[in-house]
Amino acid sequence: MPAVYAVDLIAKRDKRIKMDRSIIKGWNVHYQTLEEVEKEAFDKMRKQREEQAKEICKILAEKEELDIEEQQQLEEAQQLLEEAYNEKTGAYSGNYGKTPVNDDLKKKQIEAILTEKDDKFNSKLSELQEQNR
């Protein structure tokens, strides 16, 4: 690893003298103006936006490729979701209980709850009937 020396006044002077004595060719030097820098930045931003627009067009084209039936199904599903939204609770609880239960464990739980309520109802009803006699 080469040694690193601190830059002192003598080193700065030597560098300045070397730069003063060197010959700089005009065709090797290009100074950018502020307008050129702004134009490059604008062109770069424009290219990025064009790429984003192309990506969006691709996505839209893929979306348009969906069949009309699929679009209708999507619209129906969105409509069902909108109908299921309950503004009071702030939840999608409108479809609760409208779909059939496919899980066996849930079916057993539902049956247990319903029979439990029936048993309680029947016991209370029989008590009331005995009291009325």
The value of Rg in angstroms is 40 Å
| Major sheet characteristics | none
- Report the helical percentage: 55-70%
Question: How much strand?
Answer: under 5%
- In sequence order, what are the helices and strands, one letter per element? HHHH
Contiguous runs where pLDDT drops below 50 for at least 5 residues:
none
Describe this structure in words.
With 133 residues, the chain is mainly alpha-helical. The protein is built from four helices and no strands. The longest helix has 31 residues, at 34-64. The radius of gyration is 40 Å and the shape is elongated. The relative contact order is 0.03. The model has no long low-confidence stretch (mean pLDDT 78).
Entry keywords:
133 residues, mainly alpha, 4 helices, 68% helix, 0% strand, elongated
Give a concise summary:
The chain has helices at 9-21, 34-64, 68-84, 104-132. It has 133 residues and is mainly alpha-helical.
